[in-house]
Write a structure and sequence with these properties.
Two copies of one chain form a homodimer. By secondary structure, chain A is of the alpha/beta class. Chain A folds into two domains: 242 residues, Type I PLP-dependent aspartate aminotransferase-like (Major domain) (Aspartate Aminotransferase, domain 2, 3-Layer(aba) Sandwich), CATH 3.40.640; 126 residues, Alpha-Beta Complex (Aspartate Aminotransferase, domain 1), CATH 3.90.1150. The first copy, chain A, has 13 helices and 14 strands. The radius of gyration of chain A is 21 Å and the shape is globular.
Chain lengths: 391, 391
């Protein structure tokens, strides 16, 4: 066990798709040339294909949080009343951004590990007819919970408010019918299911959202969605684009298109299902039993064991980086990621390692139990289940 | 299971060490410059450190077979009598090369899966006092067998013959005391335990072997060991060196030095031990039960199952490339590699996948059985074995 490969297994940055990484080596080009313009336009066109929308998709050189900021500063006006659905650290970020720009925020919260119920949003919309926007996470990656954006989107659509969905870890891990479900703004980031390093974010913007942009009075300069959308249509960018990441994105999108967005989602969902089965088989408790998403599975550390020990065990014993809990969840949970470039061989390795780490830290495990649970889920999905497995 | 990562898990080319791959991006340098000379000299110096010898180490731009060819054409003369120890496809290659250059070959063979016994070599040396060289594989990677080069080397040393060891998969998987055991020529290749792509081979040459070089009369031009050794000492190369691979080698050698050659060997041996335990736990038969090496473990396919089905299962179901048998062993065995950049997370994944492939092809497996055997070997070696595992 002297060799411990560096394995990035977090819910973002996620494991890199090697051909995308290699494509970055062609960065010795200039962004104001026809050569780059072609790549840029093709990447943006592919992005619309995999997001499944004909709406404008606006790219930004920023992390996902930059796109969240831009969706507030470009679409709202000072004092606007908005609803924030908050079920974790990223819900709290929506509130922070909205308040920073002087919006009036009604927070609908759910405890960490749960999701905000559509009924609560519907009731709040009915009680507050002045609401201009509803903010949510499709996937709250701090807890692993998924929100029912379909039901909420269909409710928001009937009002004059727009629905802004942080889908940074939602895209590629759950179906998102942007136009069918009334998702006015859908935000994604490069370092998630798109399998490339951080540095690019993007948002789809509906005609209803563009309408709000016309009257928005909040200050912004770098994040100018209208200007960026207009430039993008011509293969240009308002400011210097992150050329290396665009090259990587173009390559990764070719791959995502080749397997299909539905299959990428199915892949994450199957890995998530197998991870939940493994956790249960190992006597562990899921942190998000009622609304589990497929981006990441949060699992409680055994009673009396700090989850940091598990994270440390992965790093020191096996060289792998997995995620601890964030904020007050730190030490209580650990998170196994599934979004993007993850496969079953990854999960076999993660669960076998987890078994050994748990065992070494006082949570006895019959070796192979969790792996077998993963194998059962795979076998069932692949149609290769043999009666011999049923004991 | 829609994502299947490309995983190169063969006994050569072996998995690449990513920083070595990245180092190749600095290839925009010229080989007749002080900048490159420094890198070349430092890589060759490190190579001697990890090989543990003060003998000349001669680098060649070739595959390992080129270095095998060079060791014959540079050190022997037409009609020389040599002994070839042959226990697999690579032993047969020694005979082929020796015969191509007009040497008189006495073959000492062992059946595939076995090793040539030192006693046979000692007897042949006693019976043939005109023998000028003894050729062997330290590790015969077509079968996974290891030869006792220590005992044989100590016997050859007492004669006027030189001992030429193909250690292409032996280096980094077994101890090789070059000077202590009388190993006159030890051959290595870049794409094995050195974790970089194919294209560079190297040989250590003892003073006794250099002495033979002085009288050698076999034709050669490109492979000129004396000239290459002289140039290497000055940081030069006789012909254009493979600069990208030298950059990669320099980086990989830094890593091997950082963990230590003894630990790299221990790593391979532990993975091999765990693989053998998994095979037995899964009811499979080892192809090389008596002389197993640590470069690769050859396992027989279950009765009635072509091993190609297992290889195909890895590729089609999981995207991983493992090795089939070679020549007449094709279809009968499959080979799990351990040499170089392999770790336990790799092995957990390989064994869990193997379980599913066997099961899907009519060899019923209780899922997790093989993985548990691997975990037990790890736990014992790491001192984290808990009494609960003993049933």
């Amino acid at each position: 066990m002297h060799i411990k490969k560096q394995r990035l297994l977090t819910p973002g940055p996620t494991p890199l798709y090697p051909p995308a990484l290699h494509a970055m080596m062609a960065s010795d080009l200039h962004h104001r040339t026809e050569d780059f313009r072609k790549i840029y336009q093709s990447a943006l066109a592919d992005l619309k294909v995999v997001m499944g929308t004909s709406y404008d998709v606006v790219p930004l050189v920023s992390s996902g949080s930059g796109a969240m900021d831009a969706s507030v500063s470009n679409l709202f006006s000072k004092g606007d009343h908005v609803i924030v659905c908050s079920a974790g650290k990223f819900g709290e970020r929506w509130s922070g951004i909205a308040k920073a720009y002087g919006l009036r925020v009604t927070e609908l919260t759910a405890p960490y590990g749960d999701a905000v119920k559509p009924a609560a949003v519907i009731a709040a919309l009915a009680a507050n007819t002045d609401v201009k926007g509803v903010f949510i996470q499709a996937s709250e990656s701090s807890t692993g919970a998924a929100h029912d954006v379909k039901t909420i989107g269909e409710a928001v659509r009937k009002t004059s408010a727009i629905f802004i969905v942080d889908a940074i870890t939602g895209l590629g891990t759950m179906p998102l019918d942007i136009e069918g479900w009334g998702l006015d703004v859908v935000i994604g980031g490069s370092q998630k299911a798109f399998m490339i390093p951080p540095g690019i974010a993007f948002l789809s913007v509906s005609p209803k959202a563009w309408k709000m942009e016309e009257t928005s009075d909040l200050p912004h300069f770098y994040f100018n969605l209208k200007k960026e959308a207009k430039n993008a249509a011509a293969g240009e960018s308002s400011w210097t684009p992150a050329t290396s990441l665009i090259l990587a994105l173009a390559e990764a999108l070719k791959y995502v298109k080749s397997i299909g967005m539905a299959q990428l989602i199915d892949n994450a969902q199957l890995l998530a299902k197998a991870t939940r089965a493994a956790a249960v088989a190992l006597g562990l408790e899921l942190f998000t039993p009622h609304s589990p998403g497929a981006a990441v599975t949060a699992i409680k550390a055994p009673a009396g064991m700090d989850s940091g020990k598990i994270v440390k065990g992965f790093r020191e014993r096996f060289g792998a980086i997995i995620a601890n809990g964030q904020g007050e969840m730190k030490g209580r949970i650990f998170r196994v990621a599934h979004l993007g470039y993850f496969d079953f061989m990854d999960l076999f390795a993660v669960v076998a390692s987890l078994e050994m780490i748990l065992d070494a830290n006082g949570h006895p495990v019959k070796f192979g139990t969790g792996v077998a649970a993963v194998q059962e889920v795979y076998a069932e999905a692949a149609g290769i289940r043999q009666p011999v497995h049923v004991e």
